[in-house]
Amino acid sequence: MRVYIKAYGLLGDHVKEGFYEFREGATVKEVIESILPESIRGRFSVSVFVNGEAATGERVLREGDRVVLLPPSSGG
């Protein structure tokens, strides 16, 4: 299945925006593990939105879903 992924901030340096192919029934957690380097996953918590709604790692993705990855925010 094809899923559109957009990553912001530091995550955007490691994930190219666009459509990715995953197996049918892939979860958000599986997608993150397959596209983000382990060094990044281990250092940051990642907020995930699917079709504009906050999503957990257990969320099952469907054809055409739009996934947005956000790094932790920092203030100043």
Commentary on this structure:
- The protein is an alpha+beta fold and 76 residues long.
- It has one domain: Ubiquitin-like (UB roll), CATH 3.10.20.
- The protein is 18% helix and 28% strand.
- The protein contains two helices and five strands; from the N terminus they run E-E-H-H-E-E-E.
- It has helices spanning 28-35, 38-43, and strands spanning 2-7, 18-21, 47-50, 53-54, 66-70.
- The chain has a five-stranded mixed β-sheet, with no helix packed on it.
- It is globular, with a radius of gyration of 12 Å.
Characteristic terms for this protein:
76 residues; alpha+beta; Ubiquitin-like (UB roll); 5-stranded mixed β-sheet; 2 helices; 5 strands; 18% helix; globular
Short description:
With 76 residues, the chain is α+β, with helices and mostly antiparallel strands. It has helices at 28-35, 38-43; strands at 2-7, 18-21, 47-50, 53-54, 66-70.
Layout of helices and strands, plus pairs?
Elements (H helix, E strand, L loop, with lengths): L1 E6 L10 E4 L6 H8 L2 H6 L3 E4 L2 E2 L11 E5 L6
Parallel strand pairs: 1-5
Antiparallel strand pairs: 1-2, 3-4, 3-5
